[in-house]
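Page 42, continued from yesterday. The earlier attempt failed because a stray header line got pasted into the input along with the sequence. Redoing it now with the clean sequence only.
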Amino acid sequence: LAAQQLLITNRGKNFMDKVRKAVTEIKIVEEALLVKRKKKSVDTVISTSVTIFIGSVIEIAILILLLKFIRDTFAEQKLTENSVSLANQKLREISEENATKNWILTGSASLDKIMRGEMDVNVLATKIINELAKHVEAQVAAIYMMDDANQSLKLVGSYAFNFRKSNNNLIPLGDGMIGQAVLEKKPIVFQQIPPD
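This time it went through. Structure tokens are written below.
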């Protein structure tokens, strides 16, 4: 009975119409919110993609600049290293040159010192050859003087040297290595000296 009365008065239909209308309005609002959320989601994806792209470009640019800086720094360091190496080589050469000059000057000063004063030729020759042999660290040394009258060389001073085998105190020009060296006016260097 009560149900029939509701049907007759359209109260139930009105209520259902209101519910349908409310559901329709909720659907419209929800669809609008869904569209709005989709748009916001797409905007966020686009914004994130752009941010990632720009960040990647900036990162690549920074890496390129960093690599260039590192390469330039290494190149500059290599140039500096080469310059220092050349300077060190030059200093070594100058040092060796100075050592040689000092050695020559020291020897020259020693010879000058022993040659002062008047003395016999044989005494002077012996002093000179002794000093030269010590300075150049020679094992054996001799000084011969030209005897123009006999066209020969006469031994006037020696260091750790005396008459042996074919070495004489008087050597004619062109005789033996010493005589030949004087005749040709060129030095002859002994390479393989026998132990005796």
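Notes: The beta strands are 141-147, 152-159, 170-172.
Reminder to self: strip header lines before submitting.
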